[in-house]
Design goal:
Blueprint lengths: L1 E4 L2 H12 L6 E4 L19 H14 L21 E4 L5 H6 L7 E5 L3 H14 L4 E5 L3 H18 L4 H6 L2 E4 L1 H15 L3 E5 L2 E8 L14 E4 L26 E2 L3 H6 L5 E9 L24 H25 L3 H12 L11 H33 L15 E4 L3 H12 L4 E5 L7 H7 L3 E3 L7 H4 L7 E4 L4 H14 L4 E6 L2 H14 L5 E5 H13 L3 E8 L2 E9 L20 E6 L16 E6 L1 H6 L2
Length: 615
C-alpha cells in the first residue's frame, strides 16, 4: 500500500493499514513535516502534556499540595513501525515510481489540495492501470467525474476483464463528508448517532438502564455496552468487557445477548430503528417549494399586525354603512373602499350617518397609505437582502452555535439543516467557503473572532442547545469551549480537534471539570481514516459512529467467498466483539434464521479489527 499526503490523515491512514490490517505501507510526506504527531493504532492513547499536567494538579490537591510527580516518559508516537517513508513535496512521476506504485496493490492520495490529488492520480493510473486508487477530494461533482474517468481508463487498460477492472476501481472520498454526520449527530442529540447505508437508515441511541436492571434490547440489536461511571473511556485499546485493575469496565462493542443480560447497571448504545432512508424528510424547514421565501418572512410582525388592524377597520366601516343606509353588504364594502381612496363623490345631501362614515373612511385611507408604503419598502428590502447574510433573531433559542465555516464546518452546516436544526454560525474570515452555503440556507452568521469578548454572546450562546467548534485551530476551539462554559456550565459542547491524542486529553479534562455537562471531542482524521483504509482494501465503509473514544464501522460486504458468512444464518454469522450482520442490503426484514448465500450483500457493523478479519 502507498499513502501520499501532507497532513495528519496520511499518518493516521498509514497507521491504520499497518496496525489494524497488517499491510506493508510506503508513506510519502513532505520533508520536515510538522503536523500533528502521527498516531499509533491498536494501543491505548498515551497521555499528552495537558493530561499529565491536569493529573498532576489533581494529585497534588489530593495530597495537600505536597510532593511532585515523576516525569513521564517521552512521547510514544512516531511513524508506524515497519513503514517505509519517502520525503517529497509532491507525488510526481519520479516519486510515485520510487514508492513502488507499479507493484503496489493500492494508492491513497490524501493531500489537502484537490488539484494535487487529481494530478497524481492521473500519473499513477498511467504507471499502473491495475492499481486501486483512493482519492481525497472535497468537490463532490468533480470527484464523480474523476472517478468515472479513471475507472474507464482502468477498464480499457485491462482489456475489458471485469475482475481486473473491479480490483482496479477508483474511490473518491472526503474526510469532511465522512466526519460531518458524526459531528452533527453528536451536537444535536448527544450520544445518538445516525448512519445512512445503502438505502437504509440506521439510528443508534444511548439508553440508560433502570435501577439494578439491564438495558432492554430495542430495535435491531445492542451495538455497545458503555463504560461504567468513573472509568476512562478515552483509551483506544483492545475491546474487552472485563474489569480493569480497579474493578471498572471498559466499553464493549458488539456484545452478545448473554453479555447484555449480565450488564446490570451499564448504559448501552442500541440500534433503535432500521428503516428505509428514502422516506425520511430531509428538507430544511422554513423554505417553500423550490426555495421560494415564505410570505411571513417578507413582512415584520409589527407590519402584519398593522395591516390586520386596517382590514378590521375596513370591515367595521362596511358593516356600519350597510346598517345605516340599508344597502347590500357587498355594495357597502365597495363604497367604503371608494371613500378610503377618495374616489367616491362627497355624500352631500345624504344622511348624517353616511357623511360621518365617509369621513371616517377617508381618515382610515390616510392611515393606510403609510402602512402600504412601509409594506412595499419592507418587501423590497427583504428580496434585496435575501442573498445577504442574516443576523441572529432577537428571541432565538434552542439552536446550535457552529464555529467555523471551512471544509468541515460547511458540511456540518448542511447536515444540520437537513436534519431541520436551527443554527447560528460564527466566522472570522469574510471569504470563508461556507458563507455561500449559509447565505443559500438563510442561516444567521456572526462575524468575529470567537476568542474575543462578546462574539459568542452575539450568537446567543446563553440560550443555545449546543456548541460545535470546528475551526481549523485546536487552541481556538478549546478557548471558545472554555469561554462558553463560563457562560453556560451545563452547555453541550463538541470539539473538532486535529490530533487524536490531544482530543483524548481534552475529553478527559473537560469531563472531569464539568461532570454534569455533555462533552465530546472528535478528531476528523480518527473518524475518516477507517473509511479510507476500507476503500484501499476494496471494501465499502458506509459510515462510522463514535462510541465514547472508539469507532464502530458500518460496511457493505459481499457474502460470496466469505467462509464466515456464506452458508450461515444471520445469527450464526455474528461474531461477538468483532462484527454483526444487520441486514441484507436495502432490506429491513432480515430474519435471524435467514441463510446467507452467494449473491447476497449484507450490511455489517464491525470494529476495525473485525472488519480486517472479514478479509
Amino acid at each position: 500500500m502507498v499513502v501520499c499526503g501532507d497532513d495528519g490523515l496520511a499518518h493516521r491512514l498509514a497507521a491504520e493499514l499497518r496496525g489494524v490490517y497488517g499491510e506493508q505501507v510506503t508513506l510519502v510526506v513532505p520533508p520536515n513535516e510538522r503536523t500533528a504527531r502521527p498516531p499509533v493504532v491498536g494501543r491505548a492513547a498515551s497521555a499528552t502534556l495537558l493530561d499529565r499536567m491536569v493529573s498532576a494538579a489533581v494529585g497534588s490537591v489530593g495530597r495537600g499540595g505536597s510532593g511532585n510527580t515523576a516525569a513521564a516518559g517521552g512521547p510514544s508516537g512516531g511513524r508506524p513501525a515497519g513503514d517505509r517513508v519517502l520525503e517529497a513535496f509532491e507525488a510526481d512521476e519520479a516519486v510515485l515510481a520510487e514508492a513502488g506504485v507499479e507493484r503496489a496493490a493500492a494508492l491513497a492520495l490524501v493531500y489537502d489540495d484537490d488539484e494535487t490529488n487529481i494530478r497524481a492520480a492521473l500519473t499513477a493510473r498511467r504507471l499502473n492501470p491495475r492499481l486501486r486508487l483512493v482519492l481525497r477530494l472535497y468537490n463532490r461533482r468533480l470527484g464523480q467525474h474523476i472517478e468515472e474517468l479513471l475507472d474507464q481508463a482502468a477498464t480499457l487498460a485491462c482489456d475489458g476483464d471485469p475482475e481486473a477492472s473491479a480490483d482496479a476501481a477508483t474511490t473518491v472520498l472526503s474526510d469532511a463528508d465522512t466526519a460531518a454526520p458524526a459531528l452533527a449527530a453528536t451536537a444535536v442529540v448527544g450520544t445518538s448517532k445516525v448512519v445512512q447505508t445503502e438505502g437504509l437508515l440506521l439510528r443508534a441511541v444511548e439508553r440508560l438502564p433502570p435501577d439494578g436492571g439491564t438495558v432492554a434490547e430495542a430495535g435491531l440489536c445492542t451495538l455497545a455496552l458503555l463504560s461504567t461511571p468513573g472509568t476512562d473511556p478515552a483509551a483506544d485499546g483492545p475491546a474487552g468487557s472485563g474489569p480493569r485493575g480497579n474493578g471498572e469496565h471498559e466499553p464493549r462493542l458488539l456484545p452478545d445477548d448473554e453479555e447484555v443480560r449480565r450488564a446490570a447497571g451499564r448504559a448501552a448504545v442500541v440500534l433503535e430503528q432500521l428503516s428505509s432512508a428514502g422516506g425520511q424528510e430531509t428538507a430544511a424547514p422554513g423554505r417553500g417549494a423550490g426555495g421560494v421565501l415564505p410570505l411571513a418572512s417578507l413582512f415584520s410582525r409589527r407590519l402584519r399586525w398593522s395591516l390586520a388592524g386596517m382590514v378590521a377597520c375596513v370591515v367595521a366601516l362596511a358593516v356600519a354603512l350597510s346598517l345605516v343606509t340599508e344597502i347590500h353588504p357587498l355594495r357597502a364594502f365597495y363604497l367604503t373602499l371608494l371613500d378610503m381612496f377618495a374616489i367616491d363623490d362627497p355624500a352631500i345631501g345624504q344622511s348624517l350617518g353616511r357623511q360621518i362614515l365617509q369621513l371616517l373612511s377617508g381618515l382610515v385611507g390616510l392611515l393606510l397609505l403609510p402602512v402600504l408604503l412601509a409594506a412595499v419598502l419592507e418587501a423590497l428590502g427583504t428580496f434585496r437582502t435575501a442573498s445577504a447574510l442574516r443576523r441572529p433573531p432577537r428571541g432565538m433559542g434552542g439552536h446550535v452555535v457552529l464555529l467555523g465555516l471551512g471544509k468541515i464546518g460547511t458540511r456540518v452546516l448542511t447536515r444540520l439543516r437537513e436534519l431541520g436544526v436551527p443554527v447560528v454560525c460564527v466566522e472570522a474570515d469574510p471569504d470563508a467557503r461556507g458563507l455561500a452555503t449559509a447565505r443559500r440556507l438563510r442561516v444567521p452568521v456572526v462575524f468575529g473572532d470567537v476568542t474575543q469578548e462578546g462574539v459568542l454572546e452575539a450568537a446567543k450562546i446563553h440560550r443555545a442547545h449546543a456548541l460545535l467548534a470546528v475551526t481549523s485551530a485546536d487552541t481556538t476551539n478549546l478557548e471558545a469551549v472554555l469561554a462558553a462554559r463560563t457562560v453556560r456550565p451545563d452547555l453541550r459542547v463538541v470539539l473538532r480537534l486535529y490530533d487524536d491524542d490531544f482530543a483524548t486529553a481534552v475529553y478527559r479534562t473537560l469531563r472531569a471539570a464539568y461532570p454534569q455537562a455533555l462533552t465530546r471531542s472528535r478528531s476528523v482524521t480518527h473518524l475518516a481514516a477507517p473509511a479510507f483504509a476500507g476503500a484501499m482494501l476494496g471494501r465499502q465503509v458506509l459510515g462510522a459512529i463514535p462510541v465514547e473514544r472508539r469507532v464502530l464501522l458500518f460496511a457493505a460486504v459481499d457474502v460470496d467467498g466469505h467462509p464466515r458468512l456464506e452458508g450461515r444464518t444471520v445469527r450464526e454469522a455474528f461474531h461477538a466483539g468483532s462484527w454483526r450482520v444487520l441486514a441484507l442490503s436495502g432490506r429491513t426484514d432480515t430474519a435471524p434464521d435467514h441463510v446467507l448465500v452467494k449473491g447476497d450483500r449484507v450490511v455489517v457493523a464491525a470494529t476495525r479489527r473485525g472488519l480486517a478479519e472479514l478479509r
